[in-house]
Amino acid sequence: MKKFSDFADDINILDGDKIRIDDVLNQEIEVIGCRVKGSKFDKNASGKCLTLQIKVNDQKRVVFTGSDVIIDQMEKYQKEIPFFSTIKKINRYYTLA
């Protein structure tokens, strides 16, 4: 008998308590996972939503964002996970620094 894990492609469970992105602004976080999917909202140009799994104070957390800047950064640097970063708000957008 096969196991689900033998044939499933996307076993990327991002667990942790959900927090708002503003709750971790300007704090060093450890990015430990991410997933980009289509968004059900039409608030950003890309039409995508990012689920970002992070560690803050040694606790796993999950942040959801439609920030096109952070989505672009994570798509480009996803292979570098895990890494430390800080989420900054510059004018009207969020970015990793």
Structure description:
- The protein has 97 residues and is mainly beta.
- It contains 2 helices and 6 strands, in the order H-E-E-E-E-H-E-E.
- A 6-stranded mixed sheet has the order 1-4-3-2-5-6.
- The longest helix has 10 residues.
- The protein is globular, with a radius of gyration of 14 Å.
- 15% of the residues are buried.
Question: Nutshell version of this structure?
Answer:
The protein has helices at residues 4-7, 68-77, and strands at 17-18, 28-38, 48-56, 59-65, 83-90, 93-96. The mean pLDDT is 88. It is mostly beta strands and 97 residues long.
Helix-strand pattern, N to C?
Answer: HEEEEHEE
Count of separate DSSP helical elements: 2
Average per-residue pLDDT, rounded, comes to: 88
The percent of residues in helical segments reads 10-25%
Radius of gyration: 14 Å
Q: Looking across the biggest beta sheet, what order are the strands in?
A: 1-4-3-2-5-6
* CATH fold label: OB fold (Dihydrolipoamide Acetyltransferase, E2P)
Low-pLDDT segments = none
Helices and strands: which structural class? mainly beta
Give the overall shape. Answer: globular
Key phrases:
single chain; 97 residues; mainly beta; OB fold (Dihydrolipoamide Acetyltransferase, E2P); 42% strand
